[in-house]
Specification:
mainly beta, globular, 7-stranded mixed sheet, 4-stranded antiparallel sheet
C-alpha cells in the first residue's frame, strides 16, 4: 500500500519558516515527480513546487525565492522548506507523487499551514 505521510505544518508568524516533509512508502519509484500543492480557503487547489527524478525543481512565481525543495538521504523523504511566510500562504498543503512508469498519482492527506500577521 502506497503511503505519503506528511509532517511539518502548523502555525507561524509572518516572516517565519516551516518545513513540510513528505515520506513515501510502499512503492519503488525511479522516474517520478514529487509535487506540492495547496488549497487556500474557498479556492481551488494550486501547484506550489515540485522535483523530478532527475533532480530538477520548479516553483510557482508566488513562492520562487522563498520556498526550496530537498530530497533526504533516505531518498524516500522530500521536504519543502518554506521561508518568509506570508499570511496569504495560509492553506492546506499536500504532497503528491506521480510515478511516471505507471502513470499513477498518489496523494498525502495534507497538513494545515497557518501564517499569522
Amino acid at each position: 500500500q502506497v503511503q505519503l505521510v506528511e509532517s511539518g505544518g502548523g502555525l507561524v508568524q509572518a516572516g517565519g519558516s516551516l518545513r513540510h516533509s513528505c515520506t513515501i512508502s510502499g512503492l519503488t519509484f525511479s522516474k517520478f515527480v514529487v509535487g506540492w500543492y495547496r488549497q487556500l480557503p474557498g479556492k481551488q487547489r494550486e501547484t506550489v513546487a515540485g522535483i523530478t527524478s532527475d533532480g530538477e525543481t520548479y516553483y510557482e512565481d508566488f513562492v520562487k525565492g522563498r520556498f526550496a525543495i530537498s530530497r533526504h538521504s533516505d531518498e524516500n523523504t522530500f521536504s519543502l522548506l518554506m521561508n518568509s511566510l506570508k499570511p496569504e500562504d495560509t492553506a492546506m498543503y499536500y504532497c503528491a507523487l506521480r510515478d511516471i512508469s505507471s502513470g499513477m498519482d498518489y496523494w498525502g492527506k495534507g497538513t494545515l499551514v497557518t501564517v499569522s500577521s
